[in-house]
Amino acid sequence: MDRNEQLFSRAQQTIPGGVNSPVRAFRSVGGTPRFIARAQGPHFWDADGRRYIDYIGSWGPMIVGHAHPEVVRAVQEAAARGLSYGAPTEAEVEMAEELVRLVPSMQQVRLVSSGTEAAMSAIRLARGAAGGGKGRRKLVKFEGCYHGHADSLLVKAGSGLLTFGNPSSAGVPAEITQHTLVLDYNDSQQLEDAFRQHGDDIACVMVEPVAGNMNLVRGTPEFLQTMRRLCTQHGALLAFDEVMTGFRVALGGAQSVYGITPDITVLGKVIGGGMPVAAFGGSREVMKHLAPLGAVYQAGTLSGNPVAVACGLATLRLIQAPGFYERLGESTQALVDGLAGAARDAGVAFCADRVGGMFGIYFAGSVPASYAQIMATDKDRFNRFFHAMLDRGVYLAPSAYEAGFVSAAHDGAAIGETVAAARQAFDLVG
Ligand code: KE4
């Protein structure tokens, strides 16, 4: 056994499935997960010393590349001043000021330690604040969107189109998901029907404006505009989950691309730069309901942790460099064009899409615009492609239903190597 196999076997003795997050176990693609020993720029190295061009980037955070010297130095300096205080710090104020400046739909923001925690807290806040603070119960989400693993979000569509959700995970009582309505992504008519039926009890509509957890699927402008109009009309709060799209598709997130102002924004990933920082924010009118000001409780031992915030602040500084997103977009476009060209030359039904520095690859004739179309893509071909690329030193997301991520460190050489590997891989998948 190589070191990855040895470590995976050993890990499974003391960690369920050998991993601390299920997607890392390679169960969707098969094979042995790679145990990463170190990373630098666009690369990481596994326990056997094999180098990979990394298109996961820790699922989005590593947008400036791995182990960027300015980020590492900021973390080292912060750590030398103490790891955590459980008391407010100036750095958290700097982070909050930076976030509300870059995401003007937010006047105030609360820092937490994960996207799950941010989304869960945002829903509780919406339920407490909606209807002029009288509180509401119903939550609307969309099939294929993921907002972390809070109980009310582990739900699959109800039997009937507009019936409330059923648990999608063991351990979640039906009473918890009975207030969650799961609709089809990009289906405006269902939204209209849902608000017609339940409008006065809908607290929150939560959406990934560009979905990245069913693979990449763009929200249509019409879908998101309908959502905005209906929430305003019925006094529901619109929450944009920008944990993945925030500072990834544009400096101002997807809301700046679509020109839509949500009531609550959920952030994570890039704002921590690889360390546990996430956030949720909105107008003062909404945020005043949050403890210690208001009646909606939320708390966290390591919220605003000074070392993690130092990592995030250094990352936020780097992404504001002139031309950062233009260059990131060009690299990502070069990648998807290169992959599509290689597939075309090999006669493989394949297409790719990208928004900012996140991309989707699909073994299908056209770019999917819905969950159903994603489910119709050729997963088996993807899995064969995944392993052919892995064998050639390119590490893609280990699932046909995840997006990929490019960093500022993915230079022409890395993109070129990736496309060259794909030329061979497409010939193999046939
Ligand atoms: P975390 O609790 O994993 O920090 O964030 C949850 C979350 C919330 N909202 C969106 C839009 C997200 O993409 C995520 C987490 N994304 C996954 C990637 N599919 C994290 C990877 C994993 O689960 O290991």
Textual characterization of the structure:
This protein is of the alpha/beta class and 430 residues long. The chain has 2 domains: 3-63 and 322-429, Aspartate Aminotransferase, domain 1, CATH 3.90.1150.10; 69-318, Type I PLP-dependent aspartate aminotransferase-like (Major domain) (Aspartate Aminotransferase, domain 2, 3-Layer(aba) Sandwich), CATH 3.40.640.10. It contains 14 helices and 18 strands. It has helices at residues 3-14, 69-80, 90-102, 115-129, 174-177, 188-198, 221-234, 253-258, 284-287, 306-319, 324-346, 371-375, 379-391, 412-429; strands spanning 36-40, 43-46, 51-54, 108-112, 138-142, 155-156, 166-167, 180-183, 202-207, 210-211, 217-218, 237-241, 264-267, 278-282, 351-355, 358-362, 394-395, 404-405. Strands 4-14-13-12-9-5-8 form a 7-stranded mixed beta sheet, with helices on both faces. Strands 1-2-3-17 form a 4-stranded mixed beta sheet. A hairpin with a 2-residue loop joins strand 15 and strand 16. Helix 6 (188-198) packs parallel to helix 7 (221-234), helix 11 runs parallel beside helix 14 (412-429) and helix 13 (379-391) crosses helix 14 (412-429). The longest helix is centred in the last third of the chain and has 23 residues, at 324-346. The structure holds ligand KE4.
